[in-house]
Structure formats: C-alpha cells, structure tokens
Amino acid sequence: MSKARLSGAEATMLATLYCRALDARSPRPILGDTLAVAALREIEFDPADTGVRRGDHVTIALRGRFLDSWTRDFLAGHPEATVLHLGCGLDSRVHRVDPGPGVRWYDVDRPAVIDLKRGLYPARDGYELVAASVTDPAWLEEVPADRPVLVVAEGLTMYLEEDEGRALFRRVVDRFPSGRFVFDGFSGLGVRMQWANRIVRKAGATLHWGIDGCAELETIAPGLRCTASESVFDDPGYTELSRGYRTLAAVARRLPAVRRMSVYYRLDF
Predict the structure, then answer these.
(1) 2-268, what's its fold?
(2) Is the CB of residue 211 less than 8 Å from the CB of residue 265?
(3) CA-to-CA separations, 202 to 43, 52, 94, 107, 154, in angstroms, rounded
(4) How are strands ordered across the β-sheet holding 82-86?
(5) 222 — alpha (psi -120 to 50), left (phi > 0) or beta?
(6) Three-state SS for 86?
(7) Which pLDDT does position 48 carry in this prediction?
(8) What is the mean pLDDT of residues 74-94?
(9) Exposed / middle / buried, residue 148 (Cβ in 10 Å: 0-12, 13-18, 19+)
(10) Which residues of 213-225 are buried (b: 16+ CB within 10 A; e: fewer)?
C-alpha cells in the first residue's frame, strides 16, 4: 500500500479519487469508474482529511462524465490525435475513454503524483506518464507536434496563476497545427468564494485564476475561439440526482453570478 504524501493542490486529487470511488460503489453510478475503487485500496490516507461530505461525490462524477464526453467527441473526429491530460492527478480517464490505436495520450502531473500513479493503473499502448509541472515549458518540447491536439484539464485552471495558465495555453497553440482545449474553470467570484470550499480548505490549497467568460480566453492567443461555455448547473445530469441537488441547480440557474461560478469551456484553434 502506498502512503500518499501530498499537500496543497496535489492533495485535492485524493478527494477527487475518493469521490469517484464512492460513485462507483453507489447503487446508481454516474461515472462508474471501477478502477478508482481498486486504486483507492492501494493508497493509505484518511477520507476524513479530504473534506468530502455525504453527497459531494455526485458533482465530481458529473464533471468527469461531462469532460469524458467532450473528449470522446473530439477523438471520434480525430482518430489520430495527441491528448494532453494536464494535471491528471489519479484519474483513470484514458482507461474510461479507451482511445483507439491511433491516439497518443500523455498524462502530465508533478513527480510526486506520477510516482504514486504509476503503480495504480495498468500500462497500455500509446499511453505515457510525464512527471513535470504542467507550467514547465520543457516537457511540452518533448511531445511530437505532428497531429491535432486535445488538451483536457479537469480541476486545474483555478489552481494556476493567471499568467502561468495563459502562457501554458499559448505554448500549446504555438506548438500544434490545430486542436481543442476542454476544461472547467471558476469565475472570479468562484475564486473569491474559495473559503467555502471544504476540499480546498482541507488540502491547504489556494485558488488563483478566475475566468469570467469566453472573451477573456480568446485574448490568450490569435486564432483561439471559444466554441462552448456551459455552466455546470446546466448539466442535464442534475435531473438524475436527488431533490436537494435538483433544487440547488434550479436556484443557481436563476442567479447569473452563481450560474457562472463554475463553467465548462471548449476552445478550438
């Protein structure tokens, strides 16, 4: 069993893994990530330290399912592509999506995370683990730039400094001939409300980059187009949940500032 020695933003991935495992064990799974259950058995940590409370797992499962669907959509039209899964944490997305043989997939995260992850999931053809900070320019130079690229970043952008995040996006746009970013982002209000986020508080993490709409993102690099931005509260999956979550989503949809606190973005170039 591996001892998880993570802190700050890295520690939040234990909460995310725990939530995916709770979902997989539930009577009606949303994401159904059974590999998360197996991985959790190999990690020594106290669930009480994650800040996860009863019911929290459903929102994490919905987020994973939503970004999985956008990932599959891109790969359906680009069977020979490169995927950069940034800030991958302990996510088993490559196994859930199960890309075809023409896809090169890179999971990128800090060395402590990748060291922990190596023993948790099976190897597969076309899949590599990259032990580096996503904001370090060096690792990207080692990735072949001969194919369209899909960048997947779940629960990452809000932990980056804005200038770091914008520079990272520019490097990808400059390096690849075409591609797409799919990710979730918090608004400025969402970042300012981080004191209310138990998982962030428990991990001792800090949120930085607040994104207030497509117009901001399109200034990052020429040719970058925001082709979709959807509030997490508009996810149709909320209709599958308990009355409490359905009510929460309904109230959030009526309050524009709250509705845009957490958004799924799709950027093409």
Answers:
(1) Rossmann fold (3.40.50)
(2) yes
(3) 18, 9, 28, 25, 19
(4) 127-131, 104-109, 82-86, 149-153, 179-186, 262-268, 225-231
(5) beta
(6) strand
(7) 80
(8) 98
(9) middle
(10) ebeebeebbeebe
pTM summary value: 0.93
By CB atoms closer than 10 A (0-12, 13-18, 19+), residue 92 is buried
Asked whether 153 and 86 are in contact (CB, 8 A), the reply is yes
3-class DSSP state for residue 132?
coil
Helix axes 34-41, 12-25, angle to 10 degrees: 120
Placement of tokens 């009863």 in the chain: 54
Q: What does the alpha-carbon distance between residue 208 and residue 107 come to, in Å, rounded to a whole number?
A: 23
265, 229 in Cβ contact below 8 A?
Answer: yes
Q: If 0-12 CB within 10 Å is exposed, 13-18 middle and 19+ buried, where does residue 77 land?
A: exposed
Which tens digits make up the pLDDT trace of 163-202?
999 999 999 999 999 999 999 999 999 999 987 888 788 7
Amino acid letter, residue 258? V
Domain ranges of the chain: 2-268
Tell me how far apart the terminal alpha carbons of the chain are, to the nearest angstrom: 43
DSSP bridge pairs for 153: 183
Q: DSSP 3-state assignment of 65?
A: helix
- Residue showing tokens 């990272």: 168
